[in-house]
Amino acid sequence: MKEKKLSETLRYCRQENLDIEAMEFFEEEFSCEDFSELNFDHVSFFDCRFERCIFRGTDFKDTVFRKCSFPAEVFRESWFSRCRFESCQLIGADFGSCGISDTDFDGCSLGMANFSEAKLQGCSITESDLTETFFSNCRLKKIRLSKNRFVRTEFFKTKLNGIDFSDSVLEGVTISADAGELKGAKVNLYQAAELARMLGIVIVE
Fold first, then answer.
1. Backbone angles phi, psi at 22, to 5 degrees
2. What is the pLDDT of residue 146?
3. Whole-angstrom distance, CA of residue 102 vs CA of residue 120
4. What span, in angstroms and rounded, lies between the C-alpha atoms of 179 and 6?
5. Are 195 and 182 in contact (CB under 8 A)?
6. Distance CA 201, CA 198 (A)
7. pLDDT score for 21
8. From 74's CA, which of 30, 152, 188, 189 has a CA 20 to 30 Å away?
9. CB 87 within 8 A of CB 64
10. Greatest CA span in the chain, whole angstroms?
11. Which pTM value belongs to this model?
């Protein structure tokens, strides 16, 4: 389908109770728009900016976001399946209690984003910044990581078993007192030493 203004499409789809399907949107800006409980299927967004919008309970399937900006946007309780975020600004975005499957984050800014109580399965995160991002009480399954920054990231009560952090930056993360979250996580020697110091373990050379 040809390029179309999203605001026009939203009004029409809400009136007719239709999904938003097979569309492309370019360089659009939105402020205080409500996308709650809408369904997006095979939709692409290029260089779009969303500010103070609400995506609560929104369903995204096979949707691509490329060079889009979502500063502190609320996606709470939304669903993402087979989606892709490329070079997006997602600082402070709220993905709390979302279901996210087979979705890729590539070259994204995710600092201070909130994934608390979200379920992520079959997802990949590549060359992204997750400084001070929250992953509390998450369920992570078959997550692939490559060359990310996890600095002061919170993983409180989130099992990291099988997740490979070895080629990412992993510093000053927040975990519970017994460090049970780290059981089965894959780290390199430098990261292991950093985690040991954080837990009060003295390494003697």
1. 50, 55
2. 98
3. 8
4. 46
5. yes
6. 7
7. 94
8. 152
9. no
10. 70
11. 0.91
